[in-house]
Amino acid sequence: MEHFGNGSTPAWRDEIWTDAAVDILERHTPNLLLLHLLETDSLQHEYAPLTPAAYAAYAYADSCIARVVAAVQKIGAQNRTSFFLVSDHGFASYTHTVYPNVGLVERGMLHKDGKRYSGPVLMKTEGGAASVYIRDADQRAAVIPSLKTYFSSMPGVEHVYTNAEARSIGIPSDNDTDQAPQLYLTAKNDYAFGDDAVGPLVREHEAKGQHGYLNTDSDMQALFVASGAHIQQSVRLGTISNLRVAPTIAAILGVKLEATAQAPLSQILK
C-alpha cells in the first residue's frame, strides 16, 4: 500500500479499487460499501469534459460499476441491495490559467524562502476559485481594500468577495475558523486559477477541465442516480441538494443521523 500510487495511472488504480470492492462483497457482504473511481476526474482535468478522452473514461467507469453489480448478483444479494451513483462536482472547460501568486510576488507580499514561498499574504487556488489568507489579523483591515481592488482588476477574475460577503455563498466566518479566507476570488468563464508564483500572470493553452466554480454554474451540477431493492422505479427528482444523499442512505440502513441539515429523499424509497 505504501507504493500503491507510485508510477501508476488512475485507470490502473480504478481497476484495483474495483477488484477490492468485488472481493469485499464476495467475502464480507458489508452493510455499506463506498467505491471512488478516479479516471473520469483525471482525464477531464487533462483533456476537458465532453471530449473523446472524457467519454472513454465514462465508458471505463461503467465497466467498473458493471463488475460491482455482477458481484452483488453472484452472491445473491440483489434483492436487498441499493446502488447510488453520485459525484461531488461537475466540470467546466477553460483555455486560460491565471496565477494570482505571480501578482503577490510582484507586490512584495510573497517571496521565495528556500524551496517554498512565504509572506504576509498566502493564496490557495482550487480551479474556479482562489482563497486569499492575510496571516496577521492586525493587518487585515489595512490590506484587504487594496488587495480587493488589485485582484478585481486582474484578467480572468469575475468577482472578489470579502469574508463577510462570501458568507452568502457558504464560506465560513474567519472569526470562527482560521481556514476561512479573508478574500475569495471567482474566475470568469474560460478561466481557472493556478498556484504557480513564477512565469506569466495569465497563460493560454489547449482546452482543459476544472471544477471549483460557484454552484450557480450549471456545468458544476453533480450526478445522482439511485437504483435497486429499496428504490422506486421511474422517479425523476429534478435538482436536489447533495446534503440529502447521506440521510437517504441512512434511512435505508435504519441508521439515524442526528446532525443532518436536510431530509432523506423519501419520495424515491419503497
Can you tell me the CATH superfamily of the largest domain?
Answer: Alkaline Phosphatase, subunit A
- Give the helix level as a range of percent: 25-40%
For this structure, what is the CATH class of the largest domain?
Answer: Alpha Beta
* Largest β-sheet summary: 4 strands, antiparallel
Number of domains: 2
Q: The CATH topology of the largest domain is what?
A: Alkaline Phosphatase, subunit A
What is the total tally of β strands?
11
Mean pLDDT across all residues, rounded?
96
In terms of DSSP E residues, the strand content is: 15-25%
Radius of gyration: 22 Å
Oligomer: single chain
Euclidean distance between termini CA atoms: 40 Å
The best one-word shape is globular
Tally of individual helices: 7
Structural class by sheet pairing and helices: alpha+beta
| Biggest sheet, spatial arrangement of strands | 5-6-8-7
CATH architecture of the largest domain: 3-Layer(aba) Sandwich
Order of helices and strands: HHHEEHEEEEHEHEEEEH
List low-confidence stretches.
none
